[in-house]
């Protein structure tokens, strides 16, 4: 979740413009893609809402009481798509790195993936009753590494092809008897199977393709909105017109495939929610071309340290539930405490203050330092020093 950062020479160079100015520059400078941070911040807070609020489903634009259901499933898919964008930015953006520079970037991403998996397992061990996305996130990082040398003209059709094929395969994988065995449950948690990497890699590959296309380019941003909206309309429209109900999903292969239900990994969900993620990213990028970039600065700050924000939410949840409730896993009891707004506002304020006064988030710093230590820079072409600020 963190980029390769500055070179050793640049990090050791004296700063003439002061500590606060460098922090402001890191969050708001021209090398930073604010729209990516905004989208990531929305994804993180959307997952907060999915965890902490009682949601009336399905989403219906004509029924305001259901509008909060927009976060269900879609926030985590947006998060996965942005993982692909981040991987693309730290491996060269529009022009993939080559030689030792690419090997170094891949090695550091692999180290981060391992650390994310360990952190995910530790968060699961707290007993907080949510499906932690980090194990799946880590596996998708690893699966994406061999694709980082590919251009957008290959990655985007690949993502489309996987989107059309993998939902057919996913139904078979989900029905394997293995998941009902004594070790099936622990393995499912370790793989983050609620977000099955076998299908969710579609969103990572799409995000990687967007980064290679040039996510900072105006025409790419406009195309994201248009293409994403069309895909969302196609998926959700077909779901509304012909989609399977929960009974049909359980009764037949076709019912399980032809659904837009959140977290179903059905064909219509992959198309509709994948398109939704692309459209949201495009809108965020366009918003940050205007004065509204300053209005949404607190959300961008959350998006600049998503791992810290996500982890902190779960740790606070575990601590409060352990102190107040009979058990940490009491989801209804914790939601009854009305934690969403205190946790959300607290996270936004803390991340904004940290970004402006300290800089990179603490967990992002830890992962970056560990990956640099484990994989020193190669002797080939230097990696883009602005990559950290772009992502």
UniProtKB/TrEMBL annotation:
Q: What keywords is this UniProt entry annotated with?
A: Membrane, Transmembrane, Transmembrane helix
**Recorded superkingdom:** Bacteria
A Pfam family found in this protein is: DUF418
> Is Ubl conjugation included in the keywords of this UniProt record?
no
Q: Which residues cross the membrane?
A: 38-56, 77-95, 115-142, 154-173, 193-215, 222-244, 276-297, 304-325, 337-357
Q: What is this protein called?
A: Uncharacterized protein
Every copy of the Heparan-alpha-glucosaminide N-acetyltransferase catalytic domain together lies at 32-221
Annotated organism of origin: Microbacterium trichothecenolyticum
């Amino acid at each position: 979740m963190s980029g390769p950062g500055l070179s050793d020479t640049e990090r050791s160079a004296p700063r003439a413009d002061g500590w606060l100015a460098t922090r402001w520059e890191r969050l708001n400078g021209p090398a930073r893609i604010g729209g990516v941070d905004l989208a990531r911040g929305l994804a993180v807070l959307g997952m907060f809402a999915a965890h902490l609020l009682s949601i009336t489903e399905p989403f219906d634009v004509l029924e305001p009481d259901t509008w909060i259901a927009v976060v269900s499933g879609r926030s985590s898919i947006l998060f996965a798509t942005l993982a692909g964008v981040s991987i693309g930015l730290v491996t060269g953006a529009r022009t993939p790195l080559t030689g030792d520079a690419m090997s170094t970037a891949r090695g550091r991403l692999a180290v981060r993936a391992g650390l994310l998996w360990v952190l995910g397992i530790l968060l699961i061990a707290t007993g907080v009753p949510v499906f932690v996305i980090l194990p799946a996130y880590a596996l998708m990082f690893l699966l994406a590494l061999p694709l980082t040398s590919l251009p957008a003209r290959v990655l985007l059709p690949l993502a489309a092809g996987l989107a059309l094929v993998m939902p057919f395969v996913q139904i078979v994988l989900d029905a394997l008897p293995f998941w009902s065995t004594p070790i099936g449950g622990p393995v499912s948690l370790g793989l983050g199977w609620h977000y099955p990497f076998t299908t969710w890699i579609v969103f990572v590959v799409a995000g990687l393709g967007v980064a290679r296309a040039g996510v900072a380019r105006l025409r790419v941003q406009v195309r994201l909105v248009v293409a994403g909206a069309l895909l969302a309309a196609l998926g959700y429209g077909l779901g509304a017109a012909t989609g399977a109900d929960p009974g049909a999903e359980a009764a037949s292969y076709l019912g399980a495939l032809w659904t837009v239900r959140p977290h179903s990994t059905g064909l219509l969900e992959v198309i509709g929610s994948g398109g939704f993620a692309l459209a949201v990213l495009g809108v965020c990028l366009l918003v940050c071309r205007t004065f509204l970039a300053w209005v949404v600065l607190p959300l961008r700050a959350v998006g600049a340290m998503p791992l810290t924000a996500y982890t902190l939410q779960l740790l606070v949840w575990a601590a409060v539930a352990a102190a107040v409730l009979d058990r940490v896993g009491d989801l209804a009891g914790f939601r009854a405490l009305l934690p969403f707004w205190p946790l959300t506002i607290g996270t936004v304020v803390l991340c904004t203050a940290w970004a402006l006064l300290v800089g990179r988030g603490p967990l992002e710093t830890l992962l970056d330092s560990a990956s640099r230590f484990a994989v020193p820079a190669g002797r080939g072409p230097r990696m883009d020093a602005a990559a950290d600020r772009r992502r």
